[in-house]
């Protein structure tokens, strides 16, 4: 099979297309003929070398959609022939065939394409549980930092559906701001959080960016406000960022991180099935900027690095 391999961490030139052995499903695993692959922010962070612990030869990619073609021991054979979304771990997805644990499968409903499934499958699920982690309730003022990607877009739509009184976003251009308004955002700020604002303070901030400017957004929390960090596409925050919380001790502001790994499997899968069904009904929007062949994965990453992606880039086989 063909796969995209990281031979050198850093810029996208270190990614190459190679022949690789097709995987064989082990116990409680299935083999999937891949139709679509989501290009995620974490893929770019790993490829850049921001997160250590990976060796050259890594096949990036964590989420795919396709058809189950074989199953390993202990798996119900009725999975064979079914269309599924699958999480394959932090690596392995940029390939024509993958294996995934049966617990990491979600059936793709009729009316939702494989491309749309990978636009929603991970992003919408993280957004759903990140808002829950922030104890979001109707009437809250919400700010989504870094809202132009698939995770940010899903967070905006879910906050709107959940009855947020304000859904402000940060983004890098007026055009992106216009598109986010069409998806329900009420106010558009620049990357530093400046610009028009319906609120000087926010009850919930979902931060996908991290990086050096994160302390500026702690200052935007209302008393009892909650900032949840769900990504770090701009790198790690300053080592002393928590001093902003200590210096405003009496405001009872909180900072937390969130990873889907902490959600029980059954809860995660139930939520994803409901979110994919919402996408099939048209209640959630799978925003796909571009569909590219697997062999052009490096170009997809160049677009990610340039910050020109709105929604998701999807690779197809």
TrEMBL record:
Signal peptide (residue range):
none
* Keyword terms: NADP
A Pfam family the protein falls into: ADH_zinc_N_2
Q: Could you tell me which InterPro entries the record lists for this protein?
A: ADH-like_N, ER, GroES-like_sf, NAD(P)-bd_dom_sf, Zinc-ADH_QOR/CCCR
Q: Which domain of life is it from?
A: Bacteria
User: Any stretches that span the bilayer, and where are they?
Assistant: none
Q: Which GO terms describe its molecular function?
A: oxidoreductase activity
Q: Where is the Enoyl reductase (ER) domain?
A: 10-315
Tell me the protein's name.
Oxidoreductase
């Amino acid at each position: 099979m063909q796969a995209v391999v990281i031979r050198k961490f850093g810029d996208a030139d270190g990614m190459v297309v190679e022949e690789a052995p097709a995987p064989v499903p082990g116990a409680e695993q299935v083999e999937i003929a891949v139709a679509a692959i989501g290009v995620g922010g974490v893929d770019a962070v790993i490829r850049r070398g921001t997160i250590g612990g990976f060796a050259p030869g890594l096949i990036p990619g964590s989420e795919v959609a396709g058809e189950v073609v074989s199953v390993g021991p202990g798996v119900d054979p009725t999975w064979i022939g079914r269309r599924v979304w699958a999480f394959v771990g932090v690596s392995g997805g940029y390939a024509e065939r993958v294996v995934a644990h049966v617990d990491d499968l979600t059936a793709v409903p009729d009316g939702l394409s494989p491309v749309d499934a990978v636009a929603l499958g991970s992003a919408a699920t993280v957004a759903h549980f990140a808002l829950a982690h922030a104890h979001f309730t109707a009437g809250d003022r919400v700010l989504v930092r870094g809202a132009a990607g698939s995770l940010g877009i899903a967070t905006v739509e879910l906050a709107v559906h959940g009855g947020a009184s304000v859904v402000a976003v940060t983004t890098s251009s007026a055009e992106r701001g216009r598109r986010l308004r069409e998806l329900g955002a009420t106010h558009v700020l620049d990357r530093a959080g400046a610009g028009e604002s319906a609120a000087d303070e926010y009850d919930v901030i979902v931060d996908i960016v991290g990086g050096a400017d994160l302390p500026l957004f702690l200052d935007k929390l209302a008393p009892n406000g909650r900032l949840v960090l769900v990504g770090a596409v701009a790198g790690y925050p300053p080592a002393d960022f928590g001093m902003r919380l200590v210096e405003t001790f009496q405001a009872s502001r909180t900072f937390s991180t969130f990873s889907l790994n902490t959600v029980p499997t059954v809860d995660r899968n139930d939520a994803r099935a409901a979110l994919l069904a919402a996408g099939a009904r048209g209640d959630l929007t799978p925003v796909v900027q571009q569909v590219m062949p697997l062999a052009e994965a490096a170009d997809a990453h160049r677009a990610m690095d340039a910050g020109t992606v709105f929604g998701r880039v999807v690779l197809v086989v």
